[in-house]
Each structure stands twice: as C-alpha cells, then as structure tokens.
Amino acid sequence: MSTTNVQDDSQNRPARNRAGQDVTGELTRASAGILPAHLADATVDESSLKRFLAGLPGVDPVGLEQRSAGLATRSIKRASKLQAIDLAISMVDLTTLEGADTPGKVKSLAAKARRPDPDVPETPTVAAVCVYPDMVATAAAALAGTDIGIASVATAFPSGRSSLQIKIADTKLAIDAGATEVDMVIDRGAFLSGNVGKVFDEIATIKGVCGDTRLKVILETGELGTYDNVRKASWLALLAGGDFIKTSTGKISPAATLPVTQLMLTAVRDWFDETGELRAVKPAGGIRNTKDAIRYLVMVHEVAGPQWLDPFLFRFGASSLLNDLLMQRRTQLSGHYSGPNYVTVD
C-alpha cells in the first residue's frame, strides 16, 4: 500500500487570474486575450459550444474507476494524519438544507462552525455554512466578525426548474442578505435534451448577478447518466464562469463519488493548464467519515495537484462528516478513541 503526503500547500498557490465575463443573458464570447482562442471560440454561439463539448475526449469508464479504486487504497503517513484531518475540517461547508430549518437551528450550526470542538479551542474553523436564502441573514449575523463563508443555495434548488427571472431573484435575495458564496443548480433537463446554450446562459447570467460573490455550479452528477456527460457539464460550467464545479445537491443518490470527483478534478487541472485560472471543486453528499475524506484528499493531491489542497479550491459539502473528523482528531491527540458523546450533535 503506497502512501501520500497530504499537506496544505496554500502558501505556494499561484495568484488567481479571474476572467471577466460580458454577461447579457445570451451566449456570449469570453473576453478576447484572456482565454485561449479555442476556448473563447467555443462560446461564440450554441453551435460552437456543442462542437467543443462533442470534441472532448471520451471517458474510459473502466480505467476511470480502476484509478479511483487504486487511489482509494492509498494511505497517508501516520505523522500526517492530524494535519490531514485539520485540513479536511477547514474544507467543510457545514450544511443544513431541510424544510424544517429554523433560525435556532441555523444559529446552532453557526456556533459549531465557529468552534467545532469547544473543549479543544485550537480546532480549525470550517470553510462555510450553507443554508437556504431565507436563512442567510440569520447565518450572517451569527458569523459576523469571522472569516467563515456564508453560502446559500439558489436558482430553484434542488431541481433547477424555474424561470430565469425567478433564479435571478433567488440569487439576489441570497446576496442581499449577506451570502458570500452562491450554490446554483443547472437545469439537468435542458442539458440532457441538448439545450446546452440555455444552461450556459443561465450560469453566465447568475455569475453576472454574483459579481465577486463566488459561484458554485451544482451539476447533480447522479442525474447526468454517463461519465462523458459529467465531463461535458464540467467544461460547460467552467466556460460559463463558475468558480466551483460541485457534484450534487445531496438530495439524490448517487451523490459524490470518487470517479466523478476525479473527472471534475481533471477538468479544473486542465482548465488551469490552458488558462492559468484556478477553479475549485466541491463533492457533496455521501461523504460521512474521516476515512472517506482522506481518500478524497489523496485524490486531490494525485489528480489535480497539491495546490488544490486548500479550502479556496476544494470543499466538502457535508453535515455529518464534521462530527467524525472531530472524533478522529481527538483520537489522534489523546491516543484513545473518542465517541460521539464527546462532540456536539448537529
């Protein structure tokens, strides 16, 4: 069994060169001189976009799954495990997206985000708290004075089935209430029916509404059907201006998987190689324990590269994962197992 040294490489991360997008609600060309010609030309019109996506290399499912399985067997050095756990904690988007959410529940979640383990105050804080738009103001007030992000789902989450006007209003509601990150969902029906221009336009328009607010584009990979579609949707989201590509809403199964995340990490790595821009990845749903989280960190290191081992470029969308990370962190510090009674319940 091989080992991987998973470390936070944020100090060596290149500066991020964010491309400006001229967003008008139509399929528009990326700014000339920023994107390479073949990428800029892909956004001239829907026909060009379809040709570009059709020209992406096909995915070898067997090879993809074998590599993911191989990476999942790798361990990390024992001395690095605590560092890996701390890094994973700092990458968590602590999430509650239930119809029964209340201001009290969101305040409790924010308190846990600020002090994940109150008895061990040096425990890292999480990356962000993720809530519905109507709960953003509550989260923002509870997290005032911290560096913890305030993420909000939007654009008719989780289905993505509504008018563009409603999606714009949903996004504005979240940002006006204090969201620093927006998690939008693509219209999977439009994508699967070949209406990729509509999907591109909606992502580009929402990014225009977001401005400097970071945009995560949820592909809902469990509904896309094939690995080829995951690759195409990833590139579509990157071309349209998404700051993150995110696997799932967490509302359907399968949600995040290692092979799908491998494809998405490959996409952002290739995007960086071609443009010099660093874009981020967020697997969400189904990642529940420390062993799983470390497998994803190993994959990030091996597929995208160590510079992606940073909360700016990789996140976990999770609710139950944090508790297991905290229990395992206590175990590493004390040398004996700490059960769930020692951490607060979400």
Give a quick precis of the structure.
The chain has 346 residues and is α/β, with parallel strands linked by helices. It is built from 13 helices and ten strands. Helix 5 links the parallel strand 3 and strand 4.
CATH class: Alpha Beta
- What is the SS-derived class? alpha/beta
CATH architecture, please? Alpha-Beta Barrel
Summed up, the helix count is 13
| Full CATH superfamily name | Aldolase class I
- Total strands: 10
The end-to-end distance, rounded to whole angstroms, is 35 Å
Work out the strand percent: 5-15%
What's the overall geometry?
globular
Q: Give the fraction of residues assigned to helices.
A: 40-55%
List the strand order in the largest sheet. 9-8-7-6-5-4-3-10
Order of helices and strands: EHHHEHEHEHEHEHHEHEHEHEH
Into how many domains do the coordinates divide?
A: 1
Assembly state of the chains shown = single chain
> Could you name the ranges where pLDDT drops below 50 across 5 or more consecutive residues?
9-33
Rg result: 19 Å
Q: What is the CATH topology?
A: TIM Barrel
User: Roughly what is the average pLDDT, rounded to an integer?
Assistant: 90
Question: Largest sheet at a glance?
Answer: 8 strands, parallel
Task: Please tell me about this protein's structure.
The chain has 346 residues and is α/β, with parallel strands linked by helices. It has a single domain (24-342), classed as TIM Barrel. 44% of the residues lie in helices and 10% in strands. It is built from 13 helices and ten strands. It has helices at residues 37-42, 46-54, 61-72, 81-90, 103-114, 136-142, 164-177, 188-192, 196-210, 227-240, 258-275, 290-304, 321-334; strands spanning 3-4, 75-76, 92-95, 128-131, 149-153, 181-185, 214-218, 244-246, 280-282, 316-318. It has an eight-stranded parallel beta sheet with strand order 9-8-7-6-5-4-3-10. The longest helix is centred in the last third of the chain and has 18 residues, at 258-275. The chain is globular, with a radius of gyration of 19 Å.
